[in-house]
Amino acid sequence: MRKVAMDIEAPPLQSVLIAAAQKGGPAHADLRHVTRRWWSVARLWWRCPTERRTAWKYTAASMGLSLPYVALLLWISYVQNVRSVERAAMHSSLSEKQQAGFFAAVRDFVVIIVVAAPLFALTDYVDSCLAVAWRRWLTQHMIRCYFAHHSYYALKLDPQALDNPDQRICEDVRNYVNASVMLTVSVMRKLLNCLAFTGVLWSLAPGLAVFLVFYAVGGTWITAAGFGRRLMRLTYSVLQREADLRFALVRVRENAESIAFYSGDQRESELAGARLARTIATIFGKVRWEAFLSLWQNAYAYATILLPSLLLCRRYFAGEIRYGDISQAAFAFHTIEGALSYIVTHLSDISQLAAQTDRLEALLAALVQQAEGLPGGVHRRPSVDGSIAVQDLTLTTPRGEQTVCRGLTLALAPGQSLLIVGPSGVGKTSLMRAMAGLWSAGSGTIAAPADMFFLPQRPYMPLGSLREQLTFPDSYAGTAAKGTLADLPGEGGGSAARRHSGSGGGDSDSGEEDEGALPARAVGSGSGRRLPVVRSGPAAAGYRRVASGKGLAASAAVAGAAEAPDSARLGASAASDAELRELLATVCLPSLLPRQAGGAQGFRVVGGLDAEADWAHMLSLGEQQRVSFARLLHHKPEVAFLDEATSALDTVTERALYTHLQRHCHCYISIAHRKQLAAFHTHVLEATGDGTWVVDEAGNYLRALGSGD
Ligand SMILES: Nc1ncnc2c1ncn2[C@@H]1O[C@H](COP(=O)(O)OP(=O)(O)OP(=O)(O)O)[C@@H](O)[C@H]1O
């Protein structure tokens, strides 16, 4: 009756064994390496200081229920034996019209059902709770690591290195956890089954027990060697190709309008079709191998069906043993065979888990690497007086293909502002990326205050209400109502509002070392100079390598920084409705409110600041830039950075916004192609295109511009 439930199990310890036969697969696995990789992911939960109590509680409950579970199986086998001796098995009693025997068998059956039904339901429930709790924590942990230190951004810089991190976080975690729970639970029960039934089988037919061991070991070896490595490689490819296909479709959704303008439907459809074809081809390859595997598994299983009866029938006919002994021996034989042949019968699941383990381990390793910082990084330190100082900065693109600036030194004091101009592609945005801490390849030092706010070239419109557009990236009361990581039980909240993309360093404040904590990046202290000066020349070497910890194991010391809020970034976003309405008027967007109230199609909530819409698609680029500017005025940072933040606006609106900026922000740096914007800055930094940068006072620059120099 419980055969199905007993057999729904899956992967890891076995994946380790399988992996031994999988050298050359994506995991390059041998027994030790796969074991270590699976455990390096699994242990994060059981060793997390805030979670291990929950983890062990569920694990103990699940394992504890295995004892009555196995006891019940033993009882069933005993009852079968006794009843067959009494000739009181239900069907034989019926056929022989033995009323008493029939009702005795029915009574046994009812008792078994009464005990088994709640026991099996309870074990399933506890196993599911274990899986859900583990998945909740692991996904939450991955999300935090993903967002710590701008790792999501850094991973995107080198997409070849790690494909589809989002799918790994969502689907691979789910499948990994479910399979792992089923495996660990089933291995435990199989082990107990083995122990319990080996005694039974040995007492009835020791020869059968010895044969079984050799049979299972041989079968496992053939399965692992013949199918293991190939199936794991194919499973890994299927996961990757499915993720690639979905990514292509997500990109179409994100860029629907541009594709439609280009009439790129055909090309995008072909691309999706090609990815689908590759996915299907890989799946077919896997299906073929699974068919061979199934053939082998069936032959393996059916070959032993009659074995106990065949080996014991001679003794039965000689009257040495009873009929019940044969059925009890067969029951014990097949129970032990199921345990010892686990790899043979579950190879597909095991391969799946091995591939998922590989993908998760790679993601965690990449996140840890991001947290530790890239080698040869530009050193960042906080500025205490609100000034910005760039010292001997040589900056390259992330993988070092191109040097965008060499030996740059400049300082900007509070009250000063800088306009960066230069030809397209010369490295203006890259300089801003370095100041934001997004790029750190190269050498030199950047000192900047913690309170900075960046307006990127392409405004980001988050999902949510108009209020959230204006106060982004702050959280606000409504966010909690929608549910955040902080609402999940078991860990502290992590929904700290982020004010800017500054240093990228979170302060780890966890007292106890957390296996999953990312190492915090180091920052020092220092001060800037009063006048903006710029020098270009040979860079003095000298950068400071950022903090440390090694590998995933050490990385398991990784969640504190990811979870710790950076107090300097916490935004007080509790702006009143009146303030937000005034902001909209300031950035020349008062029309947004009545438009929402009109309830245009697509609004989920109609009217006011809490109206929700697909803002990125509904607003024009100029409107998005104005919303973005409103964020800046709302946050009032110490230093503001604007990267062509008004490029889509008419000059009248642009001048109006810069007038507000001058009034509200004491220090700002802009990038623009409209050189007349120099009038709103105190200094101008011009990239000449040959790697040198020249700074001048804005007045001089404008005069030179006016005279046509
Ligand atoms: N992720 C990246 N990897 C490699 N190279 C990059 C990357 N991002 C930008 N680059 C290169 O770095 C150089 C500088 O780019 P950057 O965006 O800083 O130029 P820019 O001066 O801001 O240009 P524009 O005025 O057109 O915005 C360009 O040649 C660009 O191709």
Automatic annotation (TrEMBL):
PANTHER family: ATP-BINDING CASSETTE TRANSPORTER, ATP-BINDING CASSETTE, SUB-FAMILY D MEMBER. Belongs to the ABC transporter superfamily. ABCD family. Peroxisomal fatty acyl CoA transporter (TC 3.A.1.203) subfamily. The keyword tRNA processing does not apply. Residues 483-531 are annotated as: Disordered. One of its GO terms (molecular function) is ATP hydrolysis activity. Residues 109-352 form the ABC transmembrane type-1 domain. Signal peptide: none annotated. Coiled coil: none annotated. Residues 388-707 form the ABC transporter domain. InterPro entries: AAA+_ATPase, ABC1_TM_dom, ABC1_TM_sf, ABC_transporter-like_ATP-bd, ABC_transporter-like_CS, ABC_transporter_sub-D, P-loop_NTPase. It holds the Pfam family ABC_membrane_2. Keywords: ATP-binding, Membrane, Nucleotide-binding, Transmembrane, Transmembrane helix, Transport. The chain crosses the membrane at residues 55-78, 109-134, 191-217. This is Uncharacterized protein. GO terms for cellular component: membrane.
